[in-house]
Write a structure and sequence with these properties.
Layout: E1 10-13, H1 21-36, E2 43-46, H2 53-61, E3 64-67, E4 82-86, H3 93-101, E5 104-108, H4 115-126, E6 130-134, H5 140-148, E7 156-159, E8 175-180, H6 186-199, E9 202-205, H7 211-224, E10 229-233, H8 239-249, E11 254-257, E12 273-278, H9 284-297
Parallel strand pairs: 1-12, 2-3, 2-4, 4-5, 6-7, 6-8, 8-9, 10-11, 10-12
Helix pairs in contact: 4-5, 7-8
Bound molecules: iron/sulfur cluster.
Iron/sulfur cluster (SF4) is lined by residues 20-23, 88, 111, 113-114, 182-183, 210, 212-213, 240, 280.
């Protein structure tokens, strides 16, 4: 008897899912530093290199030492040299100064696209505008931007999106400059700019959302509209992964998982078309593992 298994779902991976150029670049830098180090020489990294627990664990096993801040870096003996890697999110200029003063050799992996909002933030403040940043205040990228304008005499606000515009208390005489965290949704930024325009005297807005973010958000929006389930893979501390899950949830059922161990067979029942996407710091390997697990659980293999 030939057994025909019906109801196998179609599985689609979003175009441009997984590592972006900034992540590829920083992981390559980390690998190079680890390969060149002397046997007992630690290579430090300020914060988790990328927001992906598996990748961080892999690099830790190879000898990378992750510290939460420069305060955790040990003082160096006279003449001693140690390397420290700055991740793609960047840091405030004051942090680089401290690292140099402590005698550390800096390897700056700040994504070139993250340096753009730094530059515009400074320009906005130097030109006498109020600075409004759309983003998560605690995110390292925003901390770096705030550090860029630290000590300059200007009002600086960070808000999550247009829904928080009241907090800005914009006056009719205000000149406002706006930028966004590189991984925030463009629609929210455009809406915020429009809202500020209704109240302020003058508005200057720079679209600082990176192309990789645009592409991923566009791709998941398109995918989610034709799937009855979307699985988004990536660290829960990854801003861009959370945004992808947020967008997919607007159109269909979506689960955000960190890796294949969190996938549940019950989610797949009765689903005809399953989409997979992943944040900019999720390795291809993790995407493939989830795809294979879905195929097994739904009887495709
Ligand atoms: S998401 Fe964009 S800004 Fe962030 S590291 Fe990747 S390419 Fe750079």
């Amino acid at each position: 008897m030939i057994q025909v298994q019906l109801n196998k779902p179609i599985i689609e991976i979003a175009s441009s899912a997984g590592w972006c150029f900034g992540v590829e670049r920083i992981v390559e830098m980390a690998e190079k530093l680890l390969a060149q180090r002397a046997p007992d020489e630690p290579v430090y990294c300020l914060g988790e290199l990328i927001h992906n627990p598996q990748e961080v664990a892999r690099l830790r096993a190879k000898g990378m030492v992750f510290v939460k801040s420069h305060e955790e870096l040990p003082p160096l003996e006279p003449g001693q040299r140690r390397k420290v890697l700055i991740r793609a999110h960047g840091v405030a200029p004051s942090v680089k100064k401290i690292l140099r003063e402590k005698g550390y050799e800096i390897f700056d992996g700040t994504c070139p696209l993250v340096t753009i909002p730094h530059r515009f933030a400074r320009e906005i403040v130097e030109q006498g505008y109020r600075l409004v940043i759309m983003g998560d205040r605690e995110h390292p990228e925003i901390q770096g931007i705030l550090g860029e304008v630290e000590g300059l005499n200007a009002r600086v606000d960070v808000i999550p999106g247009p829904e928080a515009i009241e907090a800005l208390q914009i006056k009719a005489s205000d000149r406002v400059g706006l930028i966004s965290q590189t991984t925030h949704p463009f629609e929210k930024f455009a809406q915020l700019v429009g809202e500020v325009l209704k109240h302020a005297l003058e508005v200057k807005a720079y679209n600082t959302i990176c192309q990789a973010t645009f592409d991923r958000q566009d791709a998941i929006r398109e995918l989610a509209q034709r799937c009855d389930l979307v699985i988004v893979i990536g660290g829960r501390n990854s801003s861009n992964t959370c945004r992808l899950a947020e967008i997919a949830s607007q159109y269909t059922v979506c689960y955000h998982i960190e890796d294949v161990s969190e996938l549940k067979g019950a989610w797949l029942q009765g689903k005809r078309r399953i989409g997979i996407s992943a944040g900019a710091s999720t390795p291809t390997r993790c995407i493939e593992e989830v795809k294979t697990a879905i195929e097994h659980l739904s009887g495709c293999l």
